[in-house]
Amino acid sequence: MIAVEPFKLFDAEFKFVNIIWDHEPVNSTELAKICLQALGWKKSTTYNMIRKLTERGILRSENATVMAVVKREQVQKYESEVLLEKAFDGSLPSFLAAFLKDKKLSKEEAADIKKMIEEAAK
User: Fold this and answer.
1) Burial environment of residue 53 by CB neighbours within 10 A (0 to 12, 13 to 18, 19 or more)
2) Is residue 11 within 8 Å of residue 48, measured between CB atoms?
3) How many CB atoms lie within 10 A of CB 56?
4) CA 33 to CA 69: how far, in whole Å?
5) What are the two backbone dihedrals, phi and then psi, of residue 120, each rounded to the nearest 5 degrees?
6) What is the pLDDT of residues 17-44, one digit of tens each?
7) Which of 51, 77, 64, 59 is nearest to 17 (CA)?
């Protein structure tokens, strides 16, 4: 079996866990209904995903209630760090230059980003 980083979620897993983050704690039967509507999944697919992600320590399922062990912010931080390293050789300025190219920020967005940078530089 291939070792997977603890916060690595593949696309279908991410969509699934996003539903859980938005509804947790959620009953597994209700989750299967939501996944049928949102993802077109059969009940068995939802239950297999619950089992798989529980085994990986990403979810917890007790008494037919599903909750995320891993928080959305942890996955977002992991994914952004992987992207930064993979595509920009770890350079945040290079990432920002590429991201902001041809984009217009509002004064509020620019002020928020400036504040974040100032806080991180302390």
Assistant:
1) buried
2) no
3) 15
4) 22
5) -70, -25
6) 999 999 999 999 999 999 999 999 999 9
7) 59
